[in-house]
Amino acid sequence: MELEVGSTIGDYQVVGILGAGGMGKVYKVRNVISDRVEAMKVLLPDLAATPELADRFLREIKVLAILEHPNIAQLRTAVRANNQLLMVMEFVDGQTLESRLKQGALPLSQALDYVGQALSALDFAHSQGVVHRDIKPANMMLTSSGTVKLMDFGIAKAAADNKLTMTGMTMGSVYYMSPEQIQGAATLDGRADLYSMGITLYELVTGKRPFDGESQYSIMSAHLEKAPVAPIALDPRLPQALNDVILMAVAKDPNARFQTAKAFRNALMAVAGMIQAPAAPVPAPAPAPAPARAAAVPVAAAVAASAPPRSAPPPPVAATPQKSKRWLWMTVGGLAAAAAIVCAIEFAPWKPTKAAAPLAQSSAQTPAPASTPEPASTPGAPPPDTTPAAAPAPVSSSPAPAPPPQQVAVGKPPAHSTPVPTPTQPITSTPIQQQMQQAPAAPVAPTPQTQQPQQQPQQPIAVPTPSAPAGPSRAEVQQAREHFAKLQVRAGSVRDSLGNLKQTMQSQGMGLNAKFTGPERLMETYLRSAEQALSQNDLPAAKEFAEKAERQIEVLEKLLNI
């Protein structure tokens, strides 16, 4: 039946043509009562008289009536018009993944999400005994919200069985058909759909089909005989775990593939989790001490040792009392000098007293500090500078030393000269001698020989400190995660086989033998422990638990003949 745009059939008005396949056409229609836009599938006129195709179309209507899943285009209703069966479907507004692939390979996260949704739909369909038989990007609609809808259950398989050269949608099916479909197997199960889904995933992540050729025969031969190029060889950025999942899905032997759509989907979700959860930051090792800085310490010590010794300036707190005390002594000395001049005039000729001789001798014998740039008293020199730094450290807190007796004999003594002590003079030579005797006990500037031993204990930086042990590298964490994902894939296949065995045993009123349940519990325990250790970047523990889990998986695989 051919419908024209604008014509009506029953309660539906034709709005447009959505597509045409080997067996029929799909129209965009609007329900004139509810005003809802839907899709209507109609058999082509030259096939309407074929009873077997009409029966298959009717079976498809009944199959779709029980497939209510968010990732499957829903059947609204079926009607007869002019002795013609019409299938009214949910209208999916979007584009097919085949159209999306014209822009190139999909981002990895999107490809895994879309195929995961399609596998969820297949898992439900297979549980209802329905095999799609024509999985390919052209039969997957992608909505604007990112939802994938599976389309065309069963109709393409009939056309492929009769005329592979027929133009339309079935032409593309040759690129995705499983080997058992090409060989014309009498019975097909869900593993045929999983092979086609593996081919689809291969194309989504690489942008290329695994098998291509100039003719349909060469393509079908490649499905039967040739091994596909590894996806990671086409795109080295793909995770190794995803590469292994795809190659397992497209295995030519159905027993070597994923046995259920759920196991396939679980494997993809494990890969997606590995991609979306980046490896925990690895603590960087503590940097070793810089050689240049370590060498700078002895160099600085050598420079300091070779420099001439300098006496340290007096503490700033003591500067003020030393300065005021020094001026006090200078004032007293000046008054005493004036009194001495008067006495010299009155009682000339003047001779040095016995107390002055020891004083002069003590002043002459007292060695000047090594740090003093010039003598404390020089004939004819002006009074010492009032700045504390210019005065020698040992003498800074004592009165100015008395000049030799020869300076007074000239008749022009300096203003700061100390007078000859008299019985009425409180200042005697005893305080000056005590100060001069205490002078050698003052701290002496360290010589190069005394500095070197003091610098040796102050070089801890030159000794390299042991760095903290480095954590696992990013590559090691990534490798461990990929190995764990592979284990999860194998464990998923074991779980599915055990589930089928449990159902069979329960139907007979029996339970699983302990030889199955024991390894199963150990497998699950070790897998959880490995996953927890891996989340904490404890690679040794994760590796140990993963090896234990793998041994239990091997035991179960042998028991289940996987």
Describe this structure in words.
The strands form two sheets. A six-stranded antiparallel β-sheet has the order 1-2-3-4-6-5, covered by helices on one side. Among the domains are: 8-91, 2-Layer Sandwich (Phosphorylase Kinase, domain 1); 97-278, Transferase(Phosphotransferase), domain 1 (Orthogonal Bundle), CATH 1.10.510; 474-562, Substrate Binding Domain Of Dnak, Chain:A, Domain 2 (Up-down Bundle), CATH 1.20.1270. The longest helix is centred in the C-terminal third of the chain and has 34 residues, at 474-507. The relative contact order is 0.07. It has 562 residues and is α+β, with helices and mostly antiparallel strands. The protein has helices at 51-66, 97-100, 108-127, 155-162, 169-173, 179-182, 190-206, 216-225, 231-234, 240-249, 261-276, 291-306, 316-346, 356-365, 405-409, 429-438, 448-455, 474-507, 514-535, 539-560, and strands at 8-9, 12-20, 24-31, 37-43, 75-81, 84-90, 94-96, 140-143, 148-150.
